[in-house]
Structures are given as structure tokens and as C-alpha cells.
Amino acid sequence: MSIQYILEIVGTFAFAISGALAVKDQKHQDWFGASFTAFISSIGGGTLRDVLLGSYPLVWISDITIIHAIILGILATFIFYKFLLRLRKTLFLFDTFGIALFTLVGTEKALNLGVRPEIAVIMGVFTATMGGVIRDVMTNEIPIIYRKEVYATACFTGACVYLILDSIGVERNVTFILSAIVIILLRILAVRNQWSVPRFFR
Amino acid sequence: MSIQYILEIVGTFAFAISGALAVKDQKHQDWFGASFTAFISSIGGGTLRDVLLGSYPLVWISDITIIHAIILGILATFIFYKFLLRLRKTLFLFDTFGIALFTLVGTEKALNLGVRPEIAVIMGVFTATMGGVIRDVMTNEIPIIYRKEVYATACFTGACVYLILDSIGVERNVTFILSAIVIILLRILAVRNQWSVPRFFR
Amino acid sequence: MSIQYILEIVGTFAFAISGALAVKDQKHQDWFGASFTAFISSIGGGTLRDVLLGSYPLVWISDITIIHAIILGILATFIFYKFLLRLRKTLFLFDTFGIALFTLVGTEKALNLGVRPEIAVIMGVFTATMGGVIRDVMTNEIPIIYRKEVYATACFTGACVYLILDSIGVERNVTFILSAIVIILLRILAVRNQWSVPRFFR
């Protein structure tokens, strides 16, 4: 539990950095815009999940550590952004760990609230991706899930693997780690080999 | 009740098809994007209504049939899309039945939760139109309600007719059917005769 | 209390006018689009705040006066818009009073619900600005908070001043008025002197 909590805070911190860096290419990139974008990117997915599930209070409202992790992420981006931009590969890994973690945390939380497996998968994918979607919609970009890359599909696959392992009785920590590895590997291989999801209309 | 439930499922199925077809003209039209768009289009309006009313659990979270109807709609679009695109007129009718049904179901649900008539009309229009609005915002289109067509205005008129008939004591099923006819006729006549809502600024 | 309620209704009325006027430059500016935009602009911020806080029923659902104030604002815009467009300075003042008021009302409401000061500031800023953000996202504009102007930052500063004065025991009405003056002055001075928030990336 404690390890997972630390990972969640680290994931939030990483998402805040990638959110703040996302305004780099915008014309207007003042302090407020960068902070707001970092905030939305970090908490958007989990917030949507909890609002849809009616699970109150929202995590970042009851646990102030999350807000502090975001503020730290914003400050870190401000101070080290030249260094961070050179670290794109590291950031990609951070983001990939982040989405793996957020997918499984979201799936588990939904399951614990007693919803059906199909809903738990949706909540897992939403937790990982909707922060980025809201950020992209607000900055008038095509949302990340509509870009060609395998992104949400990796989360979707990992959430399904989690449910399958869980349903056949594999121990929870093993299930969590194996599903996370699926998401992380799938995303890394997809980017390396430029995999894309099959077209819907042939 | 049973007939209305079947109609709701059919409406959800029809909205999923029109949602999946909506990515046809997008550059990126992979399986994930199409499914996501279909999902958002179908459940967006009712979800917004229930979140605003604080009515939990959300319908599609407690009744898995809705998710299954959406999945069926996505599969049907994938298999039959060439056929479906030739059927544009039939699809228009499906969509029109869908918005009529969703408007009145939304209005009724709000009334049953004890809100004022003005609020019930807003909830009816939101149920029918906000799924499409969210879909359009996410794909960077001008939202459907801002296009010149009579669309939301037909829903608005139908919801008002429902309230008037209901307040003068007309039987519920008669009220429902008459209001639905108003929405369907208004939309068909509007498209046929290219009616548009009066401009706000002269 | 009574004065604050009247101010809130006036603020809602003013936000509805600025929302309806916002469609002036859109291609499609029919009655429905203008009314919808006015509605979203007025209630969007407070709605988001209450949904995030899980505070039900939403204010505009339980108090119909708010809907009536919005309808009045739409009608006033329709009748007097030529006059209103000449009054741009007055409208700017209205909008500035509106965001000051909404910021502090939102901050206070969140505090009363027992959240931490950091969360209360976020809720205050959201109350004042997110209606405009949702409006801008829906009409495909760059959201107001990303434009160069000092806007949300004024709200943020005012909410912080409120919390500081409140924490050192200043009387509530004095705190409210002083914080409002900070927001109003900051915004007026910023527009007059073309102040902008420091860039995030140097």
C-alpha cells in the first residue's frame, strides 16, 4: 500500500512536469497557463473517474499531498526545463510509468467500488488518459487518444490483463506488476516500431 | 416501461453508430478513436444530466446493457459501414428518433427528481444534445448546437410541449408520444425546408 | 448576506450578457447558440466547483432565480446589444466586478465545506474563470486563461489575500471587501498598463 501511494505521488509529479512542458509550444506560456495546464493534466483523469463513480471527496481535495506534488512538479519544470527537454527519453519513460500506474490504480478503485469489469476497464483508461485529453481540448490540440500512436490502447490492454489475472486468482501484487509491465512494454515497443492501431474504416 | 427501455437501448445503439461514423472524415480513425467517439456520443448527454442532478449511480454504470448496446453499435458500424453510409436518410431518421427519445427521457427523469420545469427542459435538451457537443469539442469541430440547423431547438420545443401537456393533465403516454412527434416533425421539416433559428444579432 | 445574494444575482446577469455578446463574432449566432453560450458562461464555473466538491443540489438547480437572471440577461442583450457594444468599458467593469465576486463567493463556499486553504483558492479561481473557459473551448477559441492578460491571476491573488486576512482574524465583511478591491484594482491596472504574467519559459 505504502509503495503504491509513493508511486501515485511520483506519477502525479511526473504528469505535472509533462503538463507544464506541454505549454512550451503554445504562444502564451505564462506562469498561470503553465500551472493550470500542469494541474489539469495531473488530476483530470482521476477527477473524471471519481465524478463518474460518485466517489467523494475527490482524492486531491482530501489529500493535500497531491497538490503539493503538482506544485513541486511545476517548480521543477521552471527551474530545470532546459535540462528536462534534453531528457525527452527519460520523460517518455516517466510518462509511460505514469499511465501504467494510473490505469491500474483506476481499475482497482472502480472494482473496489463494486462496478462490473467492463466499467472498471473504462475507468482505468479514463484515469490514465483523460487528463491529457482535457489538456489537449483546452489548448485546441487534437486529443492525444486521436493521434495515431498506441497510447490509450496500451492502457486498455493492461486493464484487461489485470482483470483476467485477477479473475483466475493470481495474487494482487503479481497481477499489478504483470499488468503494468504489459502496458509499459506495449507502449515502448509501439513507439520504437511505430506500431499503430488498425484503421476502423478500410 | 418495457417498451421505453427497449427504445432507450435502441437509441443508444443508434447514437453509437452515428458516433463511430463521425470519425469517418477525421484523419485519424483507428479502432480506439472510433470506439471512444461512439461511447462519448452515446452516454455523454445522459451522464452530464445525472452528474448535474447528482443522480448516482450513472445509468451506464449500473446497467451494463448500455455498454453492450454501444459495443454492438461499434461492431455493426465496422462491418456494415459502406452499407450504412448509403443509408444516410435512414440514419438521419434513427438520429432523429434518438434525440426525441433522449429529450423526453431526460425531461421525465429530471421531473421525477423533483426539479422545476425550467430545469427539466434544460436537462432534456442536455440529454439529447450534449453527447454530440462533447464529441464535436473533442474532435475540434464546431459543436452541433452552434451550426445553423434546427437541432437543439427541436428538442427544446418538444420538452416544452411535454411540460404543457403534462401540466394540463394529459395522460403520460399520450404526452410522451405527442411530444416525440413534435420533435421528429420539427426536425424533419426543418432539414427539408432548410429552416434555421432566427439570428440573435440583426 | 442579503446584499451578497443580490450581488450574486447581478453577477450572474452580467455574465449572461457577456456570454451572449461573445457569440457576436461567431459565424453562427442564432437564438439558441446565444442563449446556450450565455447560460454556460454564467453557471459553468460554479457548477464545476460544486461538482468537484460534491455539493448538491447545484445552486442554479435549487434556486430558479439564477435561471431567471440569465434569461433576463439574454433578453437585455437582444434588445440593447447595440447600446451594450458601445458600453464596452462599462461591460468590462461589470465583468471585473463579476469575477471578483465569484472568486470570493467560491472561496468562501469551499472553506465552509471544510477544505484546505489551497483547495479553497483553486475553487475560487475556478468559480470565476471556468465558465469563460468552457465557453471558449466550446466555440473553439483559445481559453481566456491562456491569453496574455492578467485575468485568472487577479482572481488567484484576491483569493490568497482573502485567506491571509481571514487567517489573521480580520472581520469577514472587511476581508471580503478588501479582497474584492484587490482583484478589481489588479485587473483594471493590468489592462490599463498592459501588464502580463511573467513567461514560464525564459
* Rg for CA atoms of chain A: 16 Å
Number of strands of chain A: 0
Assembly context of the chains: homotrimer
Structural class of chain A: mainly alpha
Report the helical percentage of chain A.
over 70%
The global form of chain A is globular
Give the distance, in angstroms, between the N- and C-terminal Cα atoms of chain A: 46 Å
User: DSSP strand (E) fraction of chain A?
Assistant: under 5%
Summed up, the helix count of chain A is 8
For the largest interface, the chains and their residue counts are: A-B, 27 and 29 residues
Describe the structure.
The structure is a homotrimer of 202-residue chains. Chain A is mostly helical. The first copy, chain A, has one domain (2-192). Chain A has eight helices and no strands. In chain A, helix 6 (117-138) runs antiparallel to helix 7. The mean pLDDT of chain A is 89. Chains in contact: A-B, A-C, B-C. The interface between A and B is medium-sized, with 27 and 29 residues.
Tell me the layout of helices and strands.
The structure is a homotrimer of 202-residue chains.
Chain A: H1 2-22, H2 31-53, H3 59-62, H4 65-86, H5 88-112, H6 117-138, H7 152-167, H8 172-192
Give a quick rundown of the structure:
The structure is a homotrimer of 202-residue chains. Chain A has 202 residues and is an all-alpha fold.
Index terms:
8 helices, homotrimer, mainly alpha, 202 residues
